[in-house]
Design goal:
The complex is a heterodimer of chains A (about 300) and B (about 300).
Chain A lengths: L1 H28 L13 H10 L6 H13 L14 H36 L4 H15 L2 H15 L13 H31 L2 H8 L4 H29 L3 H7 L4 H10 L3 H29 L6
Helix pairs in contact in A: 1-12, 4-5, 4-7, 4-9, 5-7, 6-7, 6-10, 7-9, 8-9, 9-12, 10-11, 11-12
Chain B lengths: L4 H18 L3 H10 L2 H19 L13 H4 L2 H4 L19 H37 L1 H15 L3 H12 L3 H11 L2 H14 L3 H8 L4 H37 L11 H10 L5 H29 L5
Classes of the chains: A mainly alpha (about 300), B mainly alpha (about 300).
């Protein structure tokens, strides 16, 4: 097991390096520069700024400057938010996204898995259709519709919850972002769980367990759940990364100040170091959680050994 | 035992019947299973209606999608209401433009974009996955590593970069988006190819001297079609949603053209003034996505070899 983890870590390094390289050159090959705004600066000032950020040098040496900084854990200064380094911005916004994300993840797993199992056990009954239609609603209702509807209902109509803001993560500020964030994941998890649960319930070892006369809840909890969770787990890895790195929609509508908005703004404004920073963060998390999924597979499924 | 004419006749009849039974192909089988799934068939019919409506609907409207009704503009919340007599069957938006014709026009774009994007994703994904799976060994591991790298990119990063490079031409954008959302497709196809490539008929083709490229194209890919079709139907709604998300960010189609995503994000802003501006395009979008999902599920039940 430890050799496996070690091997995966070693493999991750070249992958990450390629990721950084490709996104660096892609980002810089896009037309425009961080300082090409409507209010144009005098050419001398622009030249000075470009020189300060090494933007006047060939792109290859910019790349090595960036890599050098990265090795020291420095993601560089923001080109857009004056007086902020990317490290500070990420340190400020990532915890917010992560907190919303962790709650949403938890909610999505609990509701999604129970919906899926429930629907699978009553396959093709009206309860199955009702539960799955409810779950599918999360897929078909885009969250940029759900978010304003939530605000309209909970904040304006019922006046139960604040319409936006973060306030250090107090729970009233968390409810609506978590709803908006988790619905589509609930739907996906419920669908996958239902499918694999149906398949598992038809397999031979469940028939054996039933023939032994085990009570139904023990069959489900002790025998069916583990193999049925395998496809769910492989979905959860990438989903977890997506969910903790935040969503622009949530940030825009609820003004939570998470990382999603910084990323989109950064890409739109050619804030090179912002985009690179977030890309590296997401890339690292993706690789990390793919490895975690592989390890979890071995834990859940005794047939898999590394 | 005597061979009387009536006995031979009976045998012949029986023989004819067995021939008929043998004549059912995989696709006929699948079609029968599909047709017996009521939700999927109804979804397919609704989808056809929506598509026909999007294409033909504008012919029945008194307004053009760019037209501004200056009269309705003076008081949107009263004169802009959905009504038969004003010709605004679905009402007008806050700029006085007819929602009916704009929903239809947006539907054309959204559906086209969904289909086009999925098509590109599927062509690339199938070829890549089948090649990687069939060749195996070093080539396979390199190709899969490349996939892993692409997969760890933030999706929006690609979209935004492509948009700045290609400009904001919607079809180019969607060819580009299709070109980067083939990753899952490639992985699924590769897995399926791995189990196909040891079958006898592949071996036979190999022994006959068919080239590798032709084996992939003529023998592997046709046998993958089932799973590809299923995945394609599930990909189309994702593409439509993605388009609406990009439109929400203000990067999608440009005025005066529109799409469901644009209409919905405009409608969400005008929600308190003119509910119908959100309600119509949203219900079309939700209905379409629902139908595609049911259709995909139906096709999977019909084509998935596991359930047979």
């Amino acid at each position: 097991m430890f050799t496996f983890i070690f091997k995966r870590t070693l493999e991750a390094i070249p992958t990450l390096l390629v990721l950084i390289t490709i996104s660096f050159f892609l980002m810089h090959s896009a037309p425009g520069s961080p300082f090409s705004s409507e209010r144009s600066l005098p050419p001398e000032v622009l030249a000075n700024i470009n020189a300060k950020y090494h933007l006047d040098e060939p792109i290859l040496s910019q790349y090595f400057y960036y890599l050098g900084g990265l090795l020291q854990g420095d993601l560089g200064p923001s080109f857009r938010y004056k007086d902020f380094s990317i490290n500070e911005l990420v340190a400020q916004s990532f915890p917010v996204s992560a907190e919303i994300g962790l709650w949403s993840f938890f909610v999505a797993i609990v509701i999604g898995v129970s919906c899926g199992v429930f629907a699978a056990l009553r396959q093709n009954s009206w309860l199955d259709y009702a539960v799955m239609s409810f779950a599918n609603l999360g897929i078909v209702l885009p969250n940029f519709v759900l978010a304003p509807l939530c605000i309209l209902f909970f904040s304006i109509y019922l006046q139960w919850l604040p319409a936006g803001g973060w306030n250090g993560g107090a729970w009233p500020y968390l409810v609506m972002p978590v709803i908006a964030m988790s619905t589509s994941y609930i739907a996906q998890i419920a669908r996958i769980t239902r499918g694999s649960m149906i398949e598992t319930m038809h397999s031979n070892f469940i028939r054996t367990a039933r023939a032994k006369g085990l009570p139904k809840y023990r069959i489900i909890i002790e025998h069916a759940m583990r193999p049925a969770m395998l496809p769910v787990v492989s979905y959860l890895g990438p989903a977890f990364v997506g969910i903790v790195t935040g969503s622009v929609i949530v940030d825009v509508y609820f003004g939570t100040g998470g990382i999603g908005q910084h990323f989109i703004n950064g890409a739109l404004n050619r804030d090179y170091s912002m985009v690179m920073g977030v890309t590296i963060l997401i890339g690292t998390l993706t690789i990390l959680f793919n490895a975690v999924v592989d390890i979890l597979y071995a834990v859940i499924d005794p047939k898999i050994r590394y | 035992m005597m061979l009387t004419p009536d006995k031979t006749q009976a045998v012949e009849q029986f023989a004819e019947r067995t021939v008929e039974i043998e004549g059912r192909s995989l696709w006929q089988d699948a079609r029968q299973r599909f047709l017996s799934n009521r939700a999927a068939v109804i979804s397919l019919i609704i989808l056809c209606c929506i598509a026909a409506f999007s294409i033909l609907g504008p012919l029945f409207s008194q307004w053009h999608y760019e037209d501004i009704d200056w009269e309705a503009l003076s008081d949107i919340s009263v004169l802009g209401r959905p009504a038969i007599e004003s010709g605004h069957y679905f009402g007008t938006d806050t700029l006085g433009r007819d929602i009916f014709v704009r929903t239809m026009q947006g539907g054309q774009i959204s559906l086209l974009v969904g289909v086009l994007g999925s098509f590109v994703a599927i062509v690339i994904g199938t070829l890549y996955g089948a090649t990687s799976g069939y060749l195996g060994g070093k080539v396979d591991s390199v190709m899969m590593r490349f996939l892993e790298i692409l997969n760890s990119f933030p999706f929006m990063f690609f979209v935004i970069i492509l948009m700045t490079i290609f400009g904001r031409h919607i079809f180019l954008i969607f060819v580009a988006i299709g070109a980067i959302s083939w990753l899952d497709m490639a992985r699924i196809v590769r897995g399926q190819t791995l189990s196909l490539k040891n079958k006898e008929y592949i071996e036979a083709a190999h022994a006959c001297g068919v080239s590798t490229f032709n084996i992939i194209l003529r023998h592997i890919i046709p046998n993958l079609l089932g799973i590809v079709v299923v995945y394609a139907t599930l990909l189309v709604p994702n593409m439509i949603l993605l388009e609406s998300f990009i439109s929400f960010l203000g990067l999608g189609v440009q005025e005066p053209m529109t799409s469901w995503g644009v209409l919905i994000s405009e409608g969400a802003n005008a929600m308190e003034l003119a509910v119908w501006q959100l309600a119509w395009p949203l219900s079309f979008l939700v209905l379409t996505l629902f139908c595609f999902n049911f259709l995909g599920d139906g096709l999977r039940d019909a084509l998935d070899p596991k359930d047979r």
